[in-house]
Each structure stands twice: as structure tokens, then as C-alpha cells.
Design goal:
rod-shaped; 10-stranded antiparallel sheet; alpha+beta; about 190 residues
């Protein structure tokens, strides 16, 4: 009986030793595992944030900015067919813009813009105007005219220019009836 009692006491002491908190909290492998898990979480978070910054940096370095230049009293006064108005002038302020297209909305009509510039010049006095302009580099201008035929629309007067960067990212510049210009990535 003494032998059985000593076996039971030994088993209870063994079980008691496993249940003591000191074995869990003073075990270095437990803390090492916790530290490694925290380090892994921090590294994953850092990688995600670094990737976001890299994408933003690439967008900022490639993004072209096109704004309309020159004086314009109102969109209603534009009249290219009779030769009264000068063409609209758009200036590329940053980077290279490609696939430039757009339209003008005035008086409830949506008019497709036709673009031309030094590249589309036929001779000293004649320029060819196209519905889409291939590309233009920073610091240069492209001119736009429109024909009077247009589609009916309910939109307010505005000028909308669509374009891409050299890697194909899509952008849009919108100038409203108050001549406020805003550029967006699509």
C-alpha cells in the first residue's frame, strides 16, 4: 500500500509540475515564439505599406498633367467654324501624355474635340485636326477645335480631356463652367 501511495504521489507531483504557470511563463521557447510571431506581423505590415508607397511614387512620376491655357470668356463664345475663335490650347505640364481625346459640352450639346499641333501640321498655315492625338511631351501644347454638330446631353457646360501616361494609366481633366480645372486618375 505504501508503494502504491508513493506512486500516486509521484504522479500527482508530475502532473502538478506541468500545471504550474512557471513552466509556461518561464519557458524561453514560449517567448521566442511570441517574439517571432510579432516580428512576422510587423514585417508583413511593413511590406504592404512599402508596396503602397512604391505604387504612389510610380504614379506620381508617370502621371501627366494637362490643363487648358489661355483666356476664355465663356464656352458659349467659341466658334471655330467661322474662324472667329482661336483653338483651345492645352498644355502638358508634366511627363508625356498619350492617346489624348476629349469633348466640350456647351448649350446642351456634347461636341467631340479634334486635336492638332506641330506634329499634325501640314504646312506653315494648315494643321490637320484629329479626334485623338497620339502623344505630347512635357512643356508642349496641343490645340483643339470642335464641329458644331453634337449630341444632346443634360450635362452642364464643361471641357473634358481623357489621356494616358506612357504605361497606359488612364487620366481625365475636367474644366467646369466656372473654369475650375481638376485632374483625376481613372
Amino acid at each position: 500500500m505504501t508503494e502504491q501511495l508513493s506512486i500516486i504521489i509521484l504522479k500527482l507531483n508530475e502532473i502538478n509540475g506541468y500545471l504550474k504557470p512557471q513552466n509556461i511563463f518561464f519557458n524561453l521557447s514560449f517567448y521566442s515564439t511570441i517574439i517571432l510571431a510579432i516580428t512576422l506581423v510587423v514585417l508583413i505590415w511593413y511590406t504592404v505599406e512599402t508596396h503602397k508607397l512604391a505604387v504612389q511614387s510610380e504614379d506620381a512620376n508617370l502621371r501627366p498633367i494637362i490643363l487648358r491655357g489661355g483666356y476664355l470668356k465663356s464656352l458659349e463664345e467659341l466658334d471655330y467654324i467661322s474662324g472667329i475663335s482661336d483653338p483651345l490650347k492645352f498644355v502638358v505640364l508634366q511627363n508625356i501624355a498619350t492617346d489624348i481625346s476629349g469633348y466640350l459640352i456647351r448649350g446642351g450639346k456634347k461636341h467631340k474635340l479634334l486635336f492638332g499641333g506641330d506634329i499634325t501640321r501640314i504646312n506653315e498655315t494648315t494643321t490637320s485636326y484629329l479626334p485623338e492625338f497620339g502623344w505630347i511631351s512635357s512643356g508642349n501644347s496641343v490645340f483643339a477645335i470642335f464641329k458644331d454638330d453634337g449630341e444632346d446631353t443634360n450635362l452642364e457646360n464643361q471641357i473634358i480631356i481623357n489621356y494616358r501616361d506612357i504605361q497606359g494609366g488612364k487620366y481625365i481633366t475636367i474644366e467646369d463652367k466656372l473654369f475650375k480645372q481638376k485632374a483625376y486618375k481613372q
